[in-house]
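Team,

Forwarding the record for the chain on the shared tracking sheet. I've put the sequence and predicted structure together so nobody has to dig through attachments.
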Amino acid sequence: MKVSVILPAAGLGTRMKQAAESTGTSRKQFMQIEGVPVLVHTVRKFVASPLVSEVVIALRADDLEWVESLLSSESFAKPVRCVAGGASRQQSVENALSSLAPDVDVVAVHDAVRPFVNPETIDQVIEQAARTGAAIVGIVPVDTVKQMQRHTVRGTLNRERLVLAQTPQVFQAAILRKAFEKAREDGFIGTDESSLVERLENVEVTVVAGTDRNIKITRPSDIDLARLFLAEEKQKAAAPKEDEESE
């Protein structure tokens, strides 16, 4: 099974402007956590998966050269390449999708700014999509969800029937290509890849349980949480070595 991972990373980070002074950039995918850009942390997670064949990053044209240089210094064990993205996330993913080889079986799309997805989740959602055709990662909301109109509550939604969609969102390649083709034909703009696939006949999207650690770095406060999560990951990775030394 050949699995390609697409990371859309062409965003401008408009909600991160106030974090620019402390991080050096308002573009969240390039903000550094412990000296390493968020994007690189994310790429490392997917390169480490035994199921992943390659990683394709969709970038603004102006970023291609320097990001390619940055990635080359990592000496990844698997192919990691960059393509020009578009003006929107949907266009960026479609550009990356069109660059994939015809023999790719499964395509995973993941937010470049979700660097704390765990390896088990990656493998589970890829395997699920390979079996069923389409699968996403999601978590059940813990807060009560209200439906509103003009700042007035109109109802309370049943949380048991709701899921907060995360990424990766994974699909058999033929299904995802068909979904993008249909969206292009009728001008549909979705908020994620699943919303495109859901419009296809005879295709059901299944959900694999995610975790609340799989955060999307969006606001300045997320950077502090990301530093905490990274420190915990490093501590966990070092723990077996410390145990061996004590023996």
